[in-house]
Amino acid sequence: MKILISSLLLLFSFSTFAAPKSELWDYWNVSNEKNATTISHQYWQQTLDKYLMTKGEFTLFYYANVTDADERTLNSYLRQMSRIDPREYKKAEQYAYWVNLYNAITVKIILDNYPIKSITKLGGLFSFGPWDEEVIIVAGKALTLNDIEHRILRPIWNDPRTHYAVNCASLGCPNLQSKAFTARNSDKLLDKAATEFINSNKGVLIQEDKVQLSSIYDWFAVDFGNQTQLFKHLKKYRPELKSFKGDIRYDYDWSLNKQ
Predict the structure, then answer these.
(1) In what residue span(s) does the DUF547 domain sit (predicted)?
(2) Under the phi-then-psi rule, with left for phi > 0, alpha for psi from -120 to 50, and beta for the rest, what region is 254?
């Protein structure tokens, strides 16, 4: 009976999963372009330096090896970020802030629940992952991961490369970058992340007359445009790609990105 219930819940989760729409939360669409102050992401960088490693086309995280002291460092970083009102900073500084915050919170969620096989196992009874759970308070507002990605990052910046920046702790996801985002390096990091993903099998796998794309390009098709526009985007980072006229398959591996 338990196996049947678990199977039904799994089918329910996958069959009802749909990518959230990009819907602006006006409260966050404010900036101070005269503010030259930078936000320090040193603690997040320390975490990445110590526990992130590259293996083939993946970057994997040593969740099992994180010490109590280093987990406290990560928690300190999140407390620092929660005390900041990003609206007081330049938009470029804000972008790095939100991407790093999203990724750091995701790592913390995994650490708080480790060991698990997939982030999709977290959340409520009928939830597909923890993305709708309130995880931090910033400038007096309780935020979920979906708020950060779909109500702030996507609608304010309208840059499809954001999908290569935020990491969902899964093998099918674009890699967690080894460098923390900053106002100065964000554009280069976004191009680097796009290049890595589009040149990986998990991003774009071509076999003779068939092509398999990451489900990201299906879920967020509105951000990449029609098929012609999508392949124009892909070709920018993988020049040998040609426009594809056949059927496209989509796939995504939700297994945890653990080492």
Answers:
(1) 87-198
(2) alpha
241 phi/psi in degrees, rounded to 5:
-65, 140
Convert the pLDDT of each residue in 47-90 to its tens digit.
999 999 999 999 999 999 999 999 999 999 999 999 999 999 99
| pTM (two decimals) | 0.93
Instruction: Please compute Rg for the chain using Cα positions.
Output: 18
- Partnered with residue 256 across adjacent β-strands are 170
pLDDT tens by residue, 135-170: 999 999 999 999 999 999 999 999 999 999 999 999
Strands 248-251 and 52-55: unpaired
* Residues β-bridged to residue 236: none
For residues 103-116, give the mean pLDDT. Answer: 98
One DSSP character per residue, 175-220 reads PPPSS---TTTHHHHHHHHHHHHHTSTTTEEEETTEEEEETHHHHT
Q: How far apart are CA 117 and CA 179, in angstroms?
A: 25
- Name residues whose C-beta falls within 8 Å of residue 112's C-beta, 6 or more positions apart in sequence: none
β-partners of residue 149 are none
Which residues pair with residue 137 across a beta bridge?
Answer: 142
Q: What is the CB neighbour count within 10 angstroms for residue 38? A: 14
pLDDT attached to residue 6: 43
| Best CA proximity match to 159, nearest among 147, 173, 145, 149 | 149
Task: Tell how far CA 191 is from the center of its chain.
Answer: 15
In whole angstroms, give the CA distance from residue 5 to residue 37. Answer: 53
